[in-house]
Amino acid sequence: MSTTREDLVREHITKDQKGIEVGPWFSPMTPKRAGYNCLALDVFDGHTLRQRAAVDPNIPKDKIGSIEEVDLVGTSTEIAQLVSDRNELGTFDYIVSSHNFEHLPNPIKFLQGCGKVLKPNGWLSMAIPDRRACFDRYKSNSRLSEWIAAYFEDRKQPTLAQVFDMSILSSLDPPKKSVPQIARSLKEAFESWSVCKDLPETPYQDVHCWTFTPTSFELLIIESGLLGLSPFVPVHVSKTMGNEFFVHLKHVGYLDGSEKSAEFYDRRQALFEALRAESNLVEKRWRKFHLWK
Question: How many helices (H) and strands (E) does the chain have?
Answer without folding.
Answer: 9, 9
